[in-house]
Hints:
Elements: H1 2-35, H2 39-42, H3 59-66, H4 70-101, H5 105-119, H6 122-135, H7 142-148, H8 150-166, H9 170-178, H10 183-191, H11 196-212, H12 215-220, H13 229-236, E1 238-239, E2 242-243, H14 245-265, H15 267-276
Antiparallel strand pairs: 1-2
Helix pairs in contact: 1-14, 3-14, 4-5, 4-7, 4-8, 4-11, 4-13, 5-8, 8-11, 8-15, 9-10, 11-15
Amino acid sequence: MSLNRKLATRLLVYGIAIGFALLSAFPFFWMVITAFKANRDLYNPTNNPFLFNEPPTLDHIRLLFFNTPYVRWLGNTSLVGIIVVLITVVLAVPAGYSLARLIGRWGERLAIMIFLAYLIPPTLLFIPLSRVISLLGLQDSLWSLVLVYPSFTVPFCTWLMMGFFKSIPLELEDAALVDGCSRLGALVRIIFPISISGILTTVIFAFTLSTQEFVYALTFISSSAHKTISVGVPTDLIRGDVFYWGSLMAAALLPSVFIALIYNAFLDRFIAGITGGALK
């Protein structure tokens, strides 16, 4: 009975895991099928949409790379994402440490206020921020996105890092201080090296949040050469009532695979960073 129960439990766990994996992989499968299907195959309602009924084609990839500034969009997105990540790490890591260790009980209240600031939707904030961007003369400039994106990456990553720093025993710092380290020395030599998982999680979250943002990019960027992927793809590949579905799926597939590989490469550290704050 016990053996049967263990077997049933294991089958249930594997069944849920396989079902979730198939559900998660289906968007990638659909993007691959659509990106490499010929238009005659893609738009024929009698064909099986899950199979290649005609030989695959690279026409949609050629349209994407040779008839749109897609490479430029990739460069713009990467540039904005990297700068935003640097700003976020520089601000969020010390802020999270301060809220976790130096302010006491007020740290938690301030952390909740910071997280609530993150919850304010961009559909409300873009109106006052557009006035700020206009006064600074940053319309249609990537620097407008560099200025605005930390407004939602820093609060979230500060809250994330605060939870991670709380999971690190305070006795480690006390031992370093007793051995002669200053507060800054203990932070650099003891805390940061064992916080790599949390910092890496912050980097991944800040990069993905900035690369997928749509409202601010649509509001502040108008020329095609300055657009990021999140805006350039839907605005340049949907022309009136004509949807270039193959190129749209190819444009979404390429950065999605890159992001998925990054997540997979640092999966163990990412899980440790996400769950670090929950263990406290």
